[in-house]
Amino acid sequence: MSKVRAHISISLDGYVAGPNQTEENPLGEGGEALHDWLVALRSWREQSGMEGGEENVSDAVFEEELANVGAEIMGRGKFGPPGRGPWGDDPWRGWWGEDPPFHKPVFVLTHHEREPLTLSDTTFTFVTDGIESAMERALEAAGDKDVFIGGGAKTINQYLAAGLVDELELHVVPILLGGGERLFADVGPDLKLEELRAVGAPGVAHLKYRVMK
Amino acid sequence: MSKVRAHISISLDGYVAGPNQTEENPLGEGGEALHDWLVALRSWREQSGMEGGEENVSDAVFEEELANVGAEIMGRGKFGPPGRGPWGDDPWRGWWGEDPPFHKPVFVLTHHEREPLTLSDTTFTFVTDGIESAMERALEAAGDKDVFIGGGAKTINQYLAAGLVDELELHVVPILLGGGERLFADVGPDLKLEELRAVGAPGVAHLKYRVMK
What is the DSSP letter of A165? Predict the structure, then answer.
């Protein structure tokens, strides 16, 4: 059966982006270090068309996360800022260039209606009628596969608060950001989780949870 | 060489106590669940004079934490609230009864001067001239052994911010508290940590870090 999964890198003090985020620097001050463990990986570099990189236990975690995903949901910030042209008339084509790395249907949460955008083998569908609607469409598009909630934090928090996530993996990075955007903001104490596994790796600990329903 | 160590149970959303803390309920609403993993352990129950309990990988973590500690530093809240008598004249004897579980010198950070209090084989020394002074005295008392910073969170945060901690272990519990007292409050982004190990266990993940100097 399809699962709804989310995973995100988080600082030891609970931030998924540093202070003073901007549209150009959505990770905020110091936030890039959240992904140091990932961009050093051979499997990540290979998937991004780059050579070299380290091999360690994080490769298996990363490959497990990529596997069996049939559709992704993301916030508008992850898709990309609107750029200079008015959104809709001269649609900015996202952060991701002409060959986005998704290779599957992507549902973008936004307040601005627009036609779907296909770039290479990724089609972005823009959803304006709420997170439940986006989930229904993503589950249908995914078929037997899983739906991945790609972020950012606000999107993950909305789905967690709505009880619509089955599995959550945190990549806990041993840095302090001292401010910024918090995972679990306004999610509240009613969400019940069960630890599935904890894996220590160079520069990161992978903590995976099942959301109890 | 002596190390300065701290460890504390923390919710997945970063709280070491829930909302609405009081002197009688310093763990706040829902905060007791932070210690469910610990009080279920055979090794904890044995150390507390109780029978039964589970055996799992957390026993080894708990025993490692207890081992080689020569002195403890704690905040006044962990020692105990002043109670009904005026502090000093009719010294309240702490939370811990006539046979406190420390069995070593304990240094209590407080603003109220008073004579040391010996209960069974634990002597509480009350330190009014700051955290550095308490550390010097604890290191001297510990000899070749380690100094343990027993909490609460404010005490740990003060020592982290001052760069006076060598090792920090977090017991990450899969609950959300939704509010309360945060570890790392005002510690800031300059503290550099290195992951030493991550251990998954029933109901908790143990993440151990070295503070880089």
Answer: -
pLDDT digits (tens, 9 = 90+) for B130-183: 999 999 999 999 999 999 999 889 999 999 999 999 999 999 999 999 999 999
Structure tokens at B88: 């000093």
Going by pLDDT thresholds of 50, 70 and 90, the confidence category of residue A90 is: low
Under a CB-based contact definition with an 8 Å cutoff, are residues A74 and A61 in contact? Answer: no
Distance from CA of B198 to the nearest CA of A (A): 5
Chain A residues touching residue B184 (CB < 8 angstroms): 12-14, 176
Please tell me the CATH code under which domain B4-15+28-59+73-211 is placed: 3.40.430.10
Which residue in B has a C-alpha nearest to residue A160's C-alpha?
B176
The model's pTM: 0.92
Q: Give, in words, the CATH class of A4-18+29-82+91-211.
A: alpha beta
Cβ atoms of A167 and B166 within 8 Å: the answer is: no
Return d(Cα B9, Cα B20) in angstroms, integer.
18
